[in-house]
Amino acid sequence: MMRSRSWEKVFFTILGAPAAICLTVFFWITSVLLTGIGTIRLNLLTTSALQGGLFEMIVGTAYLLLGAAGVAGPVGVFAAIHLTEYARHGRLIRVIDQAINNLAGMPSILIGLFGYAFFCRQLGLGISLASGWLTLALMMLPIVIRGTEEAIKMVPYNFKEAALALGASKWETVKSVTVPSAAPGIITSILLGMARVAGETAAILFTSCVLVTRGLPKSPFEPVMALAFNLFVKIVALGESPDKVFGIALILFLLVISFASVGIALRIYYRRKQPWLR
Amino acid sequence: MAEVDIRKLNVWFKDNHVLKDLTLTIEENAVTAIMGPSGCGKSTLLRAINRMNETIDGCRTTGEIYIDGQNIYNGNTDVYELRRRVGMVFQKPNPLPKSIFENVAFGVKIHKLADGKKLNEIVERSLKEAVLWDEVKDRLHESAFSLSGGQQQRLCIARALAVNPEIILLDEPCSALDPIATQKIETLMRKLAEKYTVIIVTHNVQQAARVSDYVAFLYLGKLIEYGPTKQVFESPKHELTERYITGEFG
Ligand SMILES: Nc1ncnc2c1ncn2[C@@H]1O[C@H](COP(=O)(O)OP(=O)(O)OP(=O)(O)O)[C@@H](O)[C@H]1O
Ligand SMILES: [Mg+2]
After folding, report:
1. How many angstroms separate the CA of residue B54 from the nearest CA in chain A?
2. Which residue of B has its CA nearest to A157?
3. What radius of gyration, in Å, describes the C-alpha atoms of chain B?
4. Does B225 score more than 90 pLDDT?
C-alpha cells in the first residue's frame, strides 16, 4: 500500500512538471509583452498606418477573423451535423474523420501554400481578403467540426426521442432541439477556432496581406493589413528590433486571449445553466 | 380513438428476436396494460405502434399493425403523421429544454396545426386535460426543468395531447414518481380513456389491476395471455400468468 502510494506521488509530481513549465512560459510571455504597454499610446489604435498607427491592422485582423468565422462557422456546423446525425458509419466516414484530424495538425504554412495555389491562383481571387477568409476557414474548420460534434453528442438522446415521438422529422429535430441545445458548445467552438487563427501568420502571409494599404479594403477582393503579418514583416524583412513591435504583439496577444477566454467562460456558464449537460 | 389491430408482429434487434408472432387487438376507449418481466419486449411492442423502433439502428420489423383499418407498416404511411396520431409518454419524464409553454406548443408548431391565439388555446386546453394547468398557469414561460418529476410527466402528457392524438402510449410512466404523483397519473389515465385509446406498459401488477380494462401478459417476447383485466386477474388461463400476478417472479 505505502509503496504504491509513494509511487503515485512521484508519478504525479513528474506529471505536474509540464504544467508548471506551461505556466512559467505563459507568465514570461505575458510579462515581456506587458513591457509593450510603454510603446502603446491609445491614439495609435485609431491612427492610420500611413501615419505610423495601427488602425488598419487592427480592423484588418478583425475583418479576416470575422470573415473566416463567417465561412467556417456555417460550413463546420453543417459538416458536424452531417457527421453526427446523418452519415452512416462506414469506411468513408472513417476516412473523412482522419482527414479532419490531419487538417487539424497540418502546418499552417502548408495551408497557406494551398490557399495561395488554389484560392489566389486557381480561383483567381488574388491576394485578397476573400483568399484569406477561405484559407483561415480551412484552419478553423477542424476545431469547429470537432467542437460542434462534441456539443451535439452531449445533447441527451431523450430530447431527440421526445421530438421524434411527437412526429418531428429528423431535420426538424436537429433544427429545433439538437442545435439549440448544443448552441453554447457550438458558439464556444467557433470562438476557439477564431482564437486559433487570430494570430495566424503563415496562412495569410501569401494569401491576403500586404505591408501597407491606403485605408481599409473596399471590397473582399482587395488585400488587407493584419497585426500578425506586420509583426512578421517588420522583424524579418525590415529588421526592426523586437522591442519596437511589442505594442503590436501585445494587442495581438490580448486579442487571442480574449477570444479564448470568452469561449471558455461561455462554456463554463452554459455548463452551469444547462442541468442536462452535467 | 382508434382500434389497434396487431397481426403476426415480429421485431428483431440485430440477431435478437425480441417479439415473436404477436397477434392481438387493442380496444378503443379503454386502458390496455402490457405487463411482463423485464426484457420481455413490452417497450418494444409499444414502440412498434408509433414506429419509434425504426429510429434504432439494426432494428427490423415484420407483420402488420392496423390502426383504423390502415396498415401502418405499408409503404405509403406518413410516419410523422402516424406519430401525431399516436402520442407517447416515456418512462423518465423528458421535457424538451424549453419553456413549459413551448413544450406543449412544440408538436402543434411542427404539424402546423395552429398559431397565435389558437395556439394559446390549445396549450391551455392540453394543460387542463393533463390536470397541470392550475399549477403552471402563472409560470408558463419558465423552464420545464423547474417542474417536479410528477409535473414534468404530466407536461409530457399534455405535450402529447396537444397534437390531437387518437392513441396514447405510456411506457412505465410512473416508475420515476412518488406515490402521490403516481396516483394523479393513474386517475388521469382513467379520464383519458374516455376519449383516447390508452396503452400502458407497467411493471407493477397492482397498477395494471387498478387502471386497466384489458391486460396483455408478455413473456420472452411471446404473448402469453390477453383479455379483460378482471378475467385475467381472477382466473388466469396460463400458469405463467398466474405465477407472475401472484408475484412469484418478475
Ligand atoms: N435499442 C436497443 N438496441 C438493442 N436491443 C434492444 C434495444 N432496446 C431493447 N433491446 C432488446 O430488446 C429486448 C426487449 O427490450 P424491451 O426494452 O422491449 O423490454 P421491456 O419489456 O420493456 O423491459 P423493461 O421492463 O426492463 O423496460 C431486450 O432483450 C433488449 O435487450
Ligand atoms: Mg421497457
Report:
1. 11
2. B94
3. 18
4. yes
- The nearest alpha carbon in chain A to B146 belongs to A275
Q: Enter the pTM of the model.
A: 0.83
Cβ contact, residue pair A159, B94, below 8 Å: yes
Question: A223 burial class (0-12, 13-18, 19+ CB within 10 angstroms)?
Answer: buried
Instruction: Tell me the pLDDT tens digit for each residue of A26-58.
Output: 888 888 777 777 767 778 888 888 888 889 999
Q: Which of B34, B42, B54, B199 to mutate to test the pocket of ligand 1 (most atoms within 8 A of CB)?
A: B42
pLDDT of res. A276: 55
Distance (Å) from the alpha carbon of B110 to chain A's nearest alpha carbon: 6
Query: Chain A residues within 8 A (CB-CB) of chain B?
Result: 158-159, 161-169, 172, 176-177, 180-181, 274-276
Q: How far is the CA of B42 from the centre of ligand 1 (A)?
A: 8
| Residues of chain B contacting A165 with CB distance shorter than 8 Å | 50, 52, 83, 87-88, 90
The model's pLDDT over B4-59, given as tens digits with 9 standing for 90+, comes to 999 999 999 999 999 999 999 999 999 999 999 999 999 999 999 999 999 998 99
Q: In the beta sheet, which residues pair with residue B232?
A: none
Chain A residue numbers with beta carbons less than 8 Å from the beta carbon of B99 are none
List strands edge to edge, sheet with B31-35.
B86-89, B167-171, B197-201, B31-35, B214-219, B222-228
The CATH code belonging to domain A42-277 is: 1.10.3720.10
Cell of A135: 484559407
Residue B250 corresponds to which cell in the numbers above?
418478475
Q: How far is CA A201 from the centre of its chain?
A: 13
8 A C-beta contact, residue B193 and residue B30: yes
